[in-house]
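[scheduler] slot 2 assigned
[scheduler] job type: sequence-to-structure, two independent chains
[scheduler] chain ordering preserved from manifest
[runner] begin chain α
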Amino acid sequence: MGHRNTFTLPSAPTEIADLYPESDGKPMAETERHFRELLKNFNRIENHLAHIPDAYVLGDMMMYYEEGNPRKSISPDIFVAFGIGRKERRIYKIWEEGKPPDFVLEFASKGTYRKDLTRKVELYAAIGIPEYFVYDVDRRYLPRPLMGFRLIGDTYVEIAPLATGGIPAVTLGLEFHLLDDSLGIYDPESADWVKTAAEAAETRAKQEADARKQAESEVARLQAELERLKARR
């Protein structure tokens, strides 16, 4: 008979830190469309803030806001926190980080929109998150498909849209816009739309290709002009 290998699994940790789960068991997004919009705009914000060393951008992470009470938690779709560094985190404990996030963006859906405009508005204000934005991907459930709130004192006040229709997020220095079928993020400083790393690379490649075509066209024009001058001699 062959020898059977046996393995002893380590026992589960019992430290107090492990009382704070890393997941709430809920899916990251309700539909494929929600997931794609969430991921695309997460990547845009992350790429835009990549040059700021202490800007931490993440989403779908368990956030605990009351020490010793694991039930006091929420998992924002996207959040940004400045000044806490970019070390890898498994969960976000506000009392350990020393501050709440500066910005939260939620993607409303049929299953979440009521909480997005009630419980989350109250909770994020109580936690002290300076700005909270919510986008209705399906444009069916919220009073307005895109809404932004800014903390004034201890209460959220809805942010009025700009003349361009965008809603400014002063914490990020960006504007959020409703496009035809998606959410757009505009950087007024660079006067350009915020892009993912892949979108930025695609834009650069197109610009370089256009520049090459323009250069080739100019060379061809100069050669033709040179030939014309030679023919007149």
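[runner] end chain α
[runner] begin chain β
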Amino acid sequence: MANYDIFDEPYYLAQYPWVKPAIDAGVIQSGREHFENFGQAGGLTKVSRYFDEETYLAQNPEIAPLLRTPNNPNAPFASGIDHFIQLGYEEGRTRVSPEYNEEFYLANNSELRSLIGPNAAFKSGYQHFVQFGAKEGRFGTSFFEPEYLKENPDIVPFVNSGALKTGREHYFNFGKNEPNRSATFVGTSGDDILTGVGVGNTELIGVEVGIDPQSNLQYESFGFYESDVLIGGPGSDTFVLGVPATSGNPTSRQLYAAAPGIVRIRNFDEDLDKIQLAGSPDIYTTLSDVNELIILSPRYETIGIIEGENLSWSTTTQPKEDGTFYLFLK
């Protein structure tokens, strides 16, 4: 049975603006009516920010023989989205868009796991994301979408109008090449590998992050039992090893401070990059050799390992009012 949960009326009308005059004239009642009666069979595929025809077909190659073409005119489906609406969504297929990663979504929203399964409320995390998660401000990849839109209000009208699918699409197509743009990439409560992308300022947070009811960043794990790898990119990277006070966590906290939590930092650029820690510099100890610098907690537990030749703990720090400070290595 066809399921149209994925259908996004404003987005569809933005992609096919010639449909709106027919609605205004009373020929059809809505974009969805147009799609169900004409667009679906006609091969129109841009129905959602979180469905990409090319990605769906590439990630589900067994579908290709089922699509109608001049050489296969009697095949059962007009397009990948036609297949997805009729079968794929209810089958729990999730490899549908670069804007969504099922593994990340479930790991970053671990409280949802009991709701996902063959006999549960949702067959996949993607179904939850489409029906509720996107509206709640949840995000489908390690790119921290809410923060990017908050810090770059100039692109919000383009996202709202459907000219851009998401802030992530803007960043990877344009923003990463603009020195004045900043972006945050976040992990989960498990083991993660994050890489900085872009020539501007990039923040790498290996733990689970969400947003609170006021749309502010909220830390939801603290690196305990995590083994993360943060890899610097071409711009100025901030590696987050300590987090500021928030509404849910009233004091600043050091990440990876309980064994066996640890983070490894690679591609650290001494001239551009910095490390964010909580508390004050004098509570930490370091060990160093030719190829790495080890940061120890006040209890002499290894917090982080920074790879790089002849690095040393710098006396140059930059305290912040939120209970954290930036450390610069030389």
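[runner] end chain β
[qc] chain β: DSSP finds ten helices and 15 strands in the chain.
[scheduler] slot 2 released
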